[in-house]
TrEMBL record:
Protein origin, superkingdom: Bacteria
Chief site of localization: membrane
Subcellular compartments: Cell membrane
Species assigned in the record: Catellatospora methionotrophica
Protein's UniProt keywords contain Membrane: yes
Annotated membrane topology: Multi-pass membrane protein
A GO molecular function held by the record: transmembrane transporter activity
The name this protein goes by in its record: ABC transporter
Family affiliation: Belongs to the ABC-4 integral membrane protein family.
Segments forming domain MacB-like periplasmic core: 17-225, 480-660
Domain ABC3 transporter permease C-terminal positions: 263-380, 715-831
Lineage, broadest ranks: Bacteria, Bacillati, Actinomycetota, Actinomycetes, Micromonosporales
PANTHER family in the record: ABC TRANSPORTER PERMEASE YTRF, MEMBRANE COMPONENT OF TRANSPORTER-RELATED
Length: 839
């Protein structure tokens, strides 16, 4: 029995070619994901483990001003028994200025400068280390961003509004000992001592070390000696503990990458399940008489079922083998294409190979199981009929379950509300959306009949080819639904993420357009920096500036009269700039900060506070003895929060001294925006850390991360769409085989080969467009729930990505045409007499 089935499978390899393609692509995605995540983790950790460290000493600061280790501590540690070397590491503000005249964004400027030593901290990729004043070495990514190489002059912005020019003598990669940012610039030790300090410290300030690195043969003895010598004011960690933490961090990063990519791989596999299930259904249908003859000569139902499942196992093994090989190749290619500086590690673990085989075989068996059961139910009497078909299951149960899933999913979303969208409610709403999504997949056959069947009656006047194509698609709604569902899966997720991205883009654009006047000029800090009082004074000194808003944010606790409180943020402003240089989106009351505070609408709702109520603001004050200062104020209005105006809006004069505030942007307005921008560019020409932009450039910078993420999502979800395209080709090819006699009669009645090709192509376009329309509709609704969960906007308050939807629909039409090329050509070449004689 098994030999007969395997022989039949080998004799009709063309029938299963597209099934193999679906298996191969799905398995390749999974294996490539595993290879990329393992290789990424190995790349992060390879070559970064330092073997020259016995211990690292850091300070336990009581305040923010004594976090550095005094210079004399190095000598004390060097004299300890077992310590062969004690090396102090300096850190300080250093921003590399690129050819544009502004500093880059690769490094965190606050700690981007360090001193060069001959330890394993630095791994030279070219040149040598700095040895004297006037020489520097650059970190590889920072050098690439600045467009500098060995031998080039480089200018570095330093703390205290100073700068230094030196020659690049080396380029390096950095081996960190913990969570510190990689430095961008390394000076020789004497120059680093002279130049490096915090940005806010005066040039004459004496600075210490950020940490001290100890070497020694006996790690335990070094740690014990350093701990005993320094006391509770310092933290001593062993080198082995640091290496283990780095390894754990690398594994954790790899797991994050793996989980994210496996989610997309699961989508591709789900599309593959529909393609494989559809293929096996049609293969079983075409071999109904063969199964009936086997039953007639004594084959039991279990034998037929096992035979079909054996075919699935064989296909799964073959497809998994090809998929694993393809996945390994794709994974290694992806690692080569990623922008990784330094040596890239390639890892192909046994788990990746085993998972590929497990996924390929299991997915194929699951997809083929329903067809195997239907094949086993074929009656022996079916061998006597030329039109025998496999018994079909009723769609009633599937439809009822699908409708219940859609209703339950909609109810799960409806019971939540944007005013009180807690974390459990967000999870509930998202789970409801996914449940409804699966409900649509279950009801897809009924939707085929409900949507396409009326079209066959409405489209009576157009050419007969269109009506024939529609009737062929409706003839087997289960098959059409399976084919279109594979398309719908990938396309719906593309449209869902596109809807979220479009909504985020629209929201961000609306916030910026509402808050920032069209004629405003924006001053922004580069390299994760801040704009200090000096920058504000320089901007106010420009004659063309008529109003300047310099929002600065920090933490505050808002306490209402009813006893409720909320730990939140505040943004302090000059009241004179509110409404002119920057405009909050007011929902209630006014915006005169001289009279009180403007609460964020969310906080007001949470605390039960409205305009006119009294609240207390508790500000945390830094210092040798941290404290809290409480300020009673009146609520003068409520506003919608934004990325520019976060939390509660307060008067600059209301904030107690000693409260930490952070500001990275300023907004200036004047009579003529172009004249104002030119004046500000001249005023800040000597400030490489300040960028001068208009509102459109600010929008572009804020939206760029969204576009990059969406682009990556589209590429990853494209695998599911590609698999679905193979499903369309497969369905049409097998459908042509299934309708050989019908096509022969069609030709015998006078249909030309061109007409036959056109009929098959039109059917393909109908199926593809139906899957496209279904995917776009479901995707937009799913995206509406996703943006509701993320932004707490109303579900139907999403922004529909019309351009993406239009391109997707055109793409589905093109897919339909291309997918039908081979099946249509095969159908047109069918011999008329042979086709009519086919049983």
């Amino acid at each position: 029995m098994l030999r007969a089935m395997l022989r039949d499978l080998r004799a009709h390899l063309g029938r299963v070619a597209m099934t193999l393609a679906a298996i191969v692509l799905g398995v390749a995605f999974v294996v490539a994901t595993w290879v990329v995540s393992d290789s990424a983790a190995a790349t992060v950790s390879s070559g970064s483990y330092r073997t020259d460290l016995a211990a690292v000493v850091e300070s336990r600061p009581k305040t923010t001003t004594d976090r550095e280790i005094p210079v004399e501590v190095v000598a004390r540690l060097a004299a300890l028994p077992g310590v062969t070397r004690a090396e102090g590491v300096r850190e300080g503000y250093a921003a590399l200025i690129g050819t544009s005249g502004k500093i880059g964004t690769t490094s965190f400027a606050e700690t981007a400068g360090t001193d060069w030593d001959d330890s394993q901290r630095f791994a030279l990729t070219s040149g040598r280390g700095p040895q004297r004043t006037g020489e520097i070495a650059l970190e590889a990514q920072a050098a690439a961003e600045a467009g500098l190489t060995v031998g080039d002059p480089a200018r570095v912005l330093l703390g205290g509004d100073r700068s230094d020019t030196a020659t690049v003598v080396g380029v390096f990669t950095y081996r960190a000992t913990g969570w510190e940012f990689d430095p961008a610039v390394a000076f020789d030790a004497d120059t680093a001592t002279r130049l490096l300090r915090d940005r806010d410290l005066p040039p004459t300030a004496v600075t210490g070390f950020a940490r001290i690195e100890l070497s020694g043969a006996d790690e335990r003895a070094v740690v014990a000696a350093a701990t005993a010598a320094l006391g509770a004011g310092f933290r001593v960690e062993s080198g082995s503990d640091l290496r283990e933490k780095q390894a754990e961090n690398a594994r954790s990063d790899g797991d994050v990458i793996r989980k994210a990519l496996l989610a997309f791989a699961a989508v591709a596999l789900l599309a593959g399940v529909f393609v494989i299930a559809n293929t096996f259904t049609m293969l079983v249908t075409q071999r109904t008489r063969q199964f009936a003859l086997l039953r007639a000569v004594g084959a039991r139902r279990a034998q037929v079922r096992r035979a079909v499942l054996t075919e699935a196992v064989v296909l799964g093994l073959v497809g998994s083998t090809l998929g694993v090989a393809m996945g390994v190749g794709l994974g290694l290619l992806a690692m080569r294409l990623l922008p990784v500086v330094g040596e890239v590690a390639y890892v192909v673990s046994p788990w990746a190979v085993l998972l590929g085989y497990a996924v390929g075989v299991i997915v194929t068996i699951v997809a083929a199981y329903g067809s195997a059961r239907r094949a086993a139910r074929v009656s022996p009497m079916a061998a006597l009929r030329t039109d025998a078909t496999v018994p079909r299951r009723s769609l009633v149960l599937r439809t009822v379950v699908g409708l219940l899933a859609i209703g339950a999913g909609a109810a799960m979303v409806a019971v939540t509300s944007p005013e009180d969208l807690t974390e459990p409610k967000r999870i509930l709403a998202m789970a409801g959306a996914v449940l409804a999504w699966f409900g649509v997949l279950l009801t897809a056959p009924i939707l085929v009949s409900a949507v396409l069947a009326p079209l066959t009656r409405l489209l009576r006047k157009p050419r007969p080819v269109t009506r024939i194509a529609l009737r062929n698609a409706v003839r087997d709604p289960r098959r059409t639904a399976a084919t279109s569902s594979a398309l719908m899966i990938g396309l719906s997720l593309v449209c869902a993420f596109s809807t979220v991205g479009q909504t985020l883009s629209t929201e961000t654009t609306a916030q910026i357009s509402s808050a920032v006047p069209e004629n405003a000029v924006v001053l922004r800090a580069a390299a994760f920096g801040t704009l200090d009082d000096t920058a504000g004074a320089a901007a106010r000194a420009v004659p063309e500036v008529t109003a300047l808003a310099a929002p600065r944010s920090g933490g505050v606790e808002v306490v209402a009269a009813n006893g409720r409180s909320s730990d939140t943020e505040f943004t302090s402003l000059d009241p004179a700039a509110v409404g002119s240089a920057i405009r909050p989106r007011i929902t209630s009351g006014g915006s005169d900060l001289r009279r009180g505070v403007m609460l964020a609408q969310r906080v007001g709702t949470e605390l039960g506070v409205k305009t006119g109520d009294q609240v207390r603001l508790r500000f945390p004050v830094e210092g040798d003895s941290p404290a809290t200062v409480e300020v009673p104020v009146t609520v003068v209005g409520l506003h919608e929060g934004s990325d520019l105006l976060r939390g509660q809006l307060v008067d600059d004069a209301l904030v107690p001294s000693g409260v930490y505030r952070y500001g990275d942007s300023m907004y200036a307005v004047g009579a003529d925006a172009s004249v104002l921008r030119g004046a500000l560019e001249r005023a800040f020409a000597s400030r490489p850390d300040v960028l001068v932009q208009d509102r459109e450039q600010l929008l572009d910078d804020l939206l760029e991360p969204y576009q990059l993420v969406l682009g990556l999502v589209y590429v990853l979800l494209g695998a599911a769409v590609v698999i679905a395209v193979f499903g369309v080709v497969n369905t049409l090819a097998l459908s042509v085989l299934e309708r050989t006699r019908e096509l022969g009669v069609f030709r015998a009645l006078g249909a030309s080969r061109a007409l036959v090709r056109q009929t098959v192509r039109r059917e393909s376009v109908v199926i593809s467009l139906y899957g496209g329309v279904l995917g776009i509709g479901v995707g937009v609704l799913l995206g509406g729930v996703m943006q509701y969960v993320i932004l707490a906007n109303p579900v139907f308050g999403m922004s529909v990505p019309w351009l993406t939807a239009g391109v997707a629909l055109l793409g589905m039409g093109l897919v339909g045409v291309l997918a039908a090329l081979w099946p249509a050509r095969r159908a047109a070449r069918a011999d008329i007499l042979a086709a009519i004689a086919t049983e």
